[in-house]
Structure prediction request, 127 residues.
Amino acid sequence: MLLYVTVGTNDLERAGAFYDPVVATLGFRRQRWDETEIGYGADGDVRVRFWVVTPFNREPATCGNGVSIALVAETRSAVDAFHAVALASGGTDEGAPGLRPFHAHFYGAWVRDLDGNKIAAVCERPE
Prediction:
């Protein structure tokens, strides 16, 4: 259903330094970038689907209350690594790794990036 998602930043260089190691824990890497945006995806993906951008309207980036973006994790250990690297990179905890009541195998972790955007990693596979 979703073509791509974006999160805003007020400091693209700082955001890239945060996201490069964090999304690498999930098998994604920086695929495209310029002075206004950084795009992340998996090798072989036909489209960059996660973007960190400076707002097009040149207004300050803000995070939305109630907004959360979940990235796919292939394993629960990848969720654990995502959370640990995000915190080590300056992010804040919004939900430690663990099973959630959404269904029997929903294992996720939530963090806020350096601009306050809420990002999750979720594995829905049994281990």
Notes: The CA atoms of residues 1 and 49 lie 12 Å apart. DSSP finds two helices and eight strands in the chain.
